[in-house]
Specification:
Number of helices: 3
Number of strands: 0
Distance between the termini: 23 Å
Shape: elongated
Order of helices and strands: HHH
Number of domains: 1
Radius of gyration: 12 Å
Largest sheet: none
Helix content: over 70%
């Protein structure tokens, strides 16, 4: 999932969103580094959502 290009993530956004949701469900047990990674993934998800409105 994390090796996909941005365009591929946008095409399969539902699966990516499910991945982000599952990560977020476990946020209470993440290490500091894993929490930083989750924050980056959440930011990417928001940016993809914002960009999707321009693509459609």
């Amino acid at each position: 999932m994390l090796t996909l290009r941005t365009e591929d993530l946008m095409e399969d956004f539902g699966e990516f969103s499910e991945f982000v949701k599952e990560l977020n469900d476990y946020c209470w047990r993440l290490t500091k580094e894993e929490k930083r990674f989750l924050d980056s993934v959440l930011r990417l998800e928001r940016e993809l959502k914002d960009s999707a409105s321009f693509v459609i």
